[in-house]
Amino acid sequence: MPSTGATGVVIEIERLRIRSLCDDDLPDLVALIGNWEVVRWVSSVPHPYTEADGREWIARVQQDHATGRPRRFAIALKDSDRLIGGVGIDGSTGDESGEPALGYWLGEPHWGNGYAREAVAAVIDYGLQTLGMETIRAYTDPSNVASQKVLLRCGLKKVGEIELVKPTRLGARRAPLFRISQHELSP
Ligand SMILES: CC(C)(COP(=O)(O)OP(=O)(O)OC[C@H]1O[C@@H](n2cnc3c(N)ncnc32)[C@H](O)[C@@H]1OP(=O)(O)O)[C@@H](O)C(=O)NCCC(=O)NCCS
């Protein structure tokens, strides 16, 4: 269940805390997202990534949380509260559709632990149940196998392909489209 406090909406799950960003997250954010192995899959993130980019992002997420219905989050380890990634449901739709879209990334040292699946599932639940979104979509670079597995594991289905308004960082102009609807949620 998401809770709302002075620092915004917090979703506690098994191993992770999905929360707003704080100023202390800046060094972890810049170090983890400044890695080409991460951002080559995420066209919307600047590269190279500067401290100013990080400060601007932290401020934007804090503003989003001040609305009470945020759509952008940090992924933090529950034990240490250290930031390990980011997840949102206001990502790029790829084709200018108005549909809510997932975006997510994890710092490379944290890959392969199932964290993405845990975080994305929690944010989908929040988007559909708490925010009342009818559907949520996601697209990936066609070669992003790990990300496609995350989406399928979280209950999204591949529903077709889209023509991208802007090619991915790896040059793809078409991308697989995934979607989940509110009525597909288990009761
Ligand atoms: C995509 C990403 C978020 C996955 O995070 P993760 O926590 O490592 O994912 P998980 O541990 O939940 O693993 C997901 C699945 O992908 C598999 N996988 C991981 N890396 C893989 C690879 N390079 N090739 C094929 N499969 C891979 C895992 O074995 C797992 O499969 P399973 O569900 O059958 O067990 C992470 O790799 C990442 O941040 N990548 C860069 C940014 C990015 O791609 N964002 C998404 C943009 S659409």
Summary?
It contains five helices and nine strands, in the order E-E-E-H-H-H-E-E-E-H-E-H-E-E. The protein is an alpha+beta fold.
Overview of this protein structure:
With about 190 residues, the chain is of the alpha+beta class. It has helices at about 25-35, 35-40, 50-65, 115-130, 145-155; strands at about 5, 10, 15-20, 70-75, 85-90, 105, 135-140, 155-165, 175-180. The strands form two sheets. The chain has a six-stranded antiparallel β-sheet with strand order 1-2-3-4-5-6, with helices on both faces. Strands 7-9-8 form a three-stranded antiparallel β-sheet. Strand 4 and strand 5 form a beta hairpin. The protein is globular. The chain starts with a strand and ends in a 6-residue tail after the last strand. Coenzyme A (COA) binds near residues 41, 42, 113 and 153.
* Overall CATH architecture: 3-Layer(aba) Sandwich
Bound molecules: coenzyme A
* Helix-strand topology string: EEEHHHEEEHEHEE
Q: What is the CA-CA span between the terminal residues?
A: 15 Å
Count of individual beta strands: 9
Tally the structural domains: 1
Radius of gyration: 15 Å
Low-confidence spans: pLDDT under 50, at least 5 residues? none
Helix content: 25-40%
CATH superfamily descriptor: Gcn5-related N-acetyltransferase (GNAT)
* pLDDT averaged residue by residue: 96
Beta fraction of the residues? 25-35%
CATH topology type: Aminopeptidase
| CATH class category label | Alpha Beta
DSSP helical segment count: 5
Structural class: alpha+beta
Question: Can you list the strand order of the major beta sheet?
Answer: 1-2-3-4-5-6
